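Per your request, structure below.
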């Protein structure tokens, strides 16, 4: 088992960055919340150097590239965000890595060996995760390009990264940047393949189990059909992390735009850092119905909760997705973001939702999110039939956010979104322990990586909670 290892699997869609995606970024709030926890764990670990493997850095087919620059910088200007990002490099570690890889007969070269490889330049697959995980831009950075050598060779590269860091006494965190299948639904960027979801399910299960070495042996036809971009980064992280089973924690998996986004902590040091930080701040959406649970079997539940329960029971008992009929109540909007929260015995058993509507009707939104809360919340095993008898369900329907001032907030009535540049933190209303505006805004700012005193904008939103 690996000891003292810190790694993060991180997605890299530019739409996550508020200055690129705007409010649409909030659709993937599960991933944003997961990145916030990973960021705090990384800060607690406080590495000397971050080693990041990017699928979109300049690459050579049969050679690994290591950026040995003293400064690495770039922007997301091609996506509409001219903000400049820059990190100090770690030439000593990078150059030592080139030497060790060469000694192991692994084809490697410094990016500076050819000016066409743009040494010292950051691509979006490095900038996006780093902008969330290392917003201070202070830690040293070594950037690795993947190659099209074998997966086994990528795993060996990861092992040598760890060996090289240890030889120099470097405290290193390894960030594996990468998205999963790009073919999860019709209209996805790379087209649709039913094998996309199959690939992602296999990948997530191996990460959950800590069997990262098994990624080397995945079916090449499945990999090709999935249209993924992150597998080689994840395999390299597995080599860095050591022998199976590697301690892991999946923080989020979702695919709202047809591309799979996986966020996970990998290695015992990563889990220890996250465990030390655990508090009620983690998973704000998890507590959506804390202290307000209802919708128990036999209750005179609201129509929308009854729909959620029927959808869950149909899926869990029979494996069939309920055809959503239009909700009859006049109080329901035509479409909206929805969170479905499940509890058993007072404990959270699943919570999945969307900030903005992803389906054509509110009923479809409820059905989809209810099923995902029951079987796809990465923190829990899928719900089984024996758990249905005492399952409490609540459904939160979200209103659109509106700009406001501090004086307009009320934690019991409004959720809050705090934004500063590309950083954003969100907190639901009516949470246990959040009784005043100062506490509410402070937690939202911490979740977004926004320091006290920074200039920021504030939005509020209402939630209709049904039990």
């Amino acid at each position: 088992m690996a000891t003292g290892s810190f790694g993060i699997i991180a997605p890299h869609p530019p739409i996550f960055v508020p200055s690129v995606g705007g409010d649409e970024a909030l659709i993937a709030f599960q991933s944003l919340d997961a990145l916030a926890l990973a960021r705090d764990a990384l800060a607690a670990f406080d590495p000397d150097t971050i080693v990041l493997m990017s699928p979109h850095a300049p690459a050579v087919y049969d050679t690994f590239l290591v950026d040995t620059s003293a400064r690495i910088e770039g922007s997301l200007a091609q996506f509409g965000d001219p903000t400049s990002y820059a990190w100090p490099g770690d030439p000593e570690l990078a150059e030592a890595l080139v030497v060790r890889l060469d000694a192991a007969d692994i084809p490697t070269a410094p990016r500076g060996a050819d000016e066409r490889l743009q040494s010292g330049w950051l691509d979006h697959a490095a900038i996006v995760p780093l902008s969330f995980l290392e917003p201070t831009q202070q830690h040293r950075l070594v950037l690795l390009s993947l190659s099209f050598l074998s997966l086994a060779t990528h795993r060996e590269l990861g092992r040598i990264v760890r060996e090289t860091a240890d030889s120099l006494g470097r405290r290193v965190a390894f960030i594996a940047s990468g998205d999963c299948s790009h073919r999860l639904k019709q209209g996805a960027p790379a087209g649709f393949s039913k094998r996309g979801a199959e690939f992602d399910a296999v990948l997530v299960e191996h990460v959950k189990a800590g069997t990262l070495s098994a990624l080397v042996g995945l079916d090449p036809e499945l990999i090709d059909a999935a249209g993924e971009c992150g597998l080689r980064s994840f395999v390299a992280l597995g080599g860095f992390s050591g022998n199976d089973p590697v301690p892991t924690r999946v923080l989020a998996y979702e695919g709202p735009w047809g591309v799979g986004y996986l966020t996970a902590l990998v290695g015992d040091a990563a889990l220890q850092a996250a465990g030390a930080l655990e508090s009620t701040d983690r998973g704000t959406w998890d507590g959506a119905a804390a202290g307000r649970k209802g919708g128990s079997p036999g209750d005179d539940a609201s129509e929308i909760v009854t729909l959620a329960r029927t959808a869950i029971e149909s899926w869990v008992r029979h494996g069939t997705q309920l055809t959503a009929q239009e909700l009859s109540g006049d109080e329901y909007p035509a479409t909206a973001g929805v969170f479905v929260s499940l509890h058993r015995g007072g404990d959270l058993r699943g919570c999945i939702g969307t900030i903005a509507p992803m389906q054509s009707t509110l009923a479809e939104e409820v059905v989809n999110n209810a099923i995902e809360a029951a079987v796809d919340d990465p923190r829990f095993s899928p719900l089984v039939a024996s758990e249905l008898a005492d399952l409490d369900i609540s459904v939160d329907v979200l209103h659109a956010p509106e700009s406001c001032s501090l004086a307009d907030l009320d934690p019991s009535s409004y959720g809050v979104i705090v934004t500063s540049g590309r950083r954003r933190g969100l907190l639901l209303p009516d949470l246990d322990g959040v009784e005043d505006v100062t506490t509410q805004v402070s937690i939202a700012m911490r979740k977004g990586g926004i320091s006290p005193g920074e200039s920021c904008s504030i939005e509020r939103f209402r939630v209709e909670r049904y039990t």
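The chain has three domains: 7-277, 284-397, 402-466.

Regards,
D.
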